[in-house]
Every structure is written in C-alpha cells, then in structure tokens.
Description:
Elements lengths: L1 E10 L2 E8 L2 E20 L22 H18 L2 H4 L5 E7 L2 H8 L2 H4 L3 E5 L9 E7 L3 E9 L3 E2 L6 E2 L4 E8 L2 E9 L7 H25 L5 E6 L7 H4 L4 E2 L10 E2 L2 H6 L5 E3 L2 E3 L2 E6 L11 E7 L20 E2 L2 E2 L9 E8 L2
Parallel strand pairs: 3-4, 11-12, 13-14
Antiparallel strand pairs: 1-2, 2-3, 3-21, 4-6, 5-6, 7-10, 8-9, 10-11, 12-17, 14-17, 15-16, 18-21, 19-20
Helix pairs in contact: 1-3
Amino acid sequence: MKICQLNWGLSLMFFSILVFQASAQKEREFEVHTIAFYNVENLFDTINDPLKNDEASPMMELTYQRGLIYQKKIKNMARAITAIGRDVSGTSPVIVGLSEVENRGVVKDLLNDPQLLDEDYGIVHYESPDNRGIDVALIYKKKLFVPTHTSSHELKIYDESDGYRIYTRDQLLVSGLLDGDPVHFIVNHWPSRSGGEARSRSRRIGAGKLAKHLVDSLQIIDPYAKIMIMGDFNDNPTDKSIKRELGTESDKAKVGLKGLYNPMELIFKKGIGSNAYRDSWSLFDQIIISEPLLREDYSSFRYYKAGVFNDNFLVNPKGQYKGYPFRSFTYAGFTDGFSDHFPAYIYLIREKL
C-alpha cells in the first residue's frame, strides 16, 4: 500500500488520503487533531497574591495601564493558540499544554477571550511550588476530550553547591479519552539554564528521571499506552536529559514497544528552533510520543506529523531581535508581542469509518 497524495481541501476536522492498491483506487478519509504545547511567557494577572511569589510578574511593574496591557496579553495568546494547526485541522488544537501561567485564573481569562470562548475548553491545573510563581496547565476541548485521571508530580532537586532545595514546576499528568481513544499527556517545564547549562544540567536530568518514572508507571499498567510528553524542557532533543534519561529515538524504525520517539530531533537537526538566544536557536519546546502512536493501523489515533508553529505574526519584525520569537516583555516593558517561544505541535490522525 502506497500513500500517493494528500488532498488538502479540508472540511472541518477531516482530510482525505488517496491510496492505490493494485490497480484499484480507494479514497480513505481521516480525522485530524492538533496537539500543541506553548510557553506563554509570563502570563500573570495584575493582582498581587500574598500567598504566592508572583512579584516576578512584569505586570506588577506597570502603572495604571496594567489592566489594559493584561487584556492585550490575553488577546495575543488567544490569537496564537487558535491558529496552531488550523491550516490542516481547520480548527484550533484539541489539546494545548501551557507553561508560565501564574494560576488557574489567568487560564480562565485566556479561554474567555472571544477568540477561544466558543471552543469550550476545559482546564487542568495545579499550583506548583516554583520560585517564580509559575505553573504548567493543560486545556482541552470538552466535546472531544474527557479527562479520567489528573495528578501533579513534584520535582525534588537540590543545588549541588549548598544542598538547598530548588523549588520548580511540578509535572502534570492527564489521562483521558480523546474522542473515545485512551491517551495520556505529561506536561513539563523543566528547570532553566540559569547559572549556565553545565551547572544546571543535573536539574534537568532529575526532571528527565521523573518524567521517565511517570512513563514507566503508565506502561506497567498498559504497555501499549499512548503517551505524549510535552513541554519546555530547557534542553534540546539531543541533550542527555532527553536522549539518555527518556531514551528517545529519532528513527521510528528503532522505537520498540515501550520506546519513545522524538520527532523534534530531526526538526532540530534541520536548524529549526522554538527559541533563540544570542543569535543561536534552540528547540526547547517539544512533544515526544510512545511507540503505539507510530503504528499504521489507523483504526485509532496515530502520529502523522510534527512542527514548530512560527507563522509570521509570531516573529519579531524589526530591530536587534528581528526574526526571533516576538516576545511580550523586554526591559523596556510590554511590546504587544506574543511569547519568547514558538509553540510546538503534532497532528494525530484516525481513519473515519
């Protein structure tokens, strides 16, 4: 069986693949869903929460304009999310993992923006003990995904020089039914490279060990579990925290049962990144998948394609950082931009009966 042509004349949520078998032509129709991850860069509200370290918020430094600026930030994030994968799926993503959100309230504000309101997203969010006051979260279309289990998993890491604990983001596990198909999502925001990549490496290796533990726990229950590990890993697909600790492969043929495939590694090797620093691109934002999503029986959801969403409106159009992600905040204040990261995404497809 040979896939010969894609028909991109899409009706909502469906596309067709023309398949030739022997001399007969048969058209197969597939559902397509976008799964995405987005670091939304300091999505903080304008309220000082005395119970949480939220003073890192750029919003706190603004004067009477801060309410208006917050609304612009929300609107920009909503615009970006609704566009991810739309050219193929015809709609906004079914699932979006988020990082750098202050609390559940800012996620609710995001989903109440008119650009996203009619999509009727639900929220999974837990507070993390992070020093910066930021968390991860997951949003999902209620009509297509039903959570059956959610949990937050604390990452306990320590500074090698003084032994003090480093408080960082928890890892979020969400299991559920994607249009009836059991799937699992692990949402991450691993420790940053603050203090240097080498000095901070052990922290991300610790995060990799925790993520692998979650994967192993799911695969003990079901070796054929469909798992998607998404996040801002603050490491590239070729770094030890991902290659060694998660044991990822860039070649589908090498991924065995209980193995993990990282489609972002080949993208990274082509020079494509999701964030930039000092004229060097990194691909910290990734979605990694388990082996059952690679199979060619399309009676249930399978992996189709991955990418970095870097449409022109998300790119800085001018100045010193022209070509970089068009971030929201600089030392000069709010830029009316989006984020200092591009979103990552994958498409899942299933044959329509």
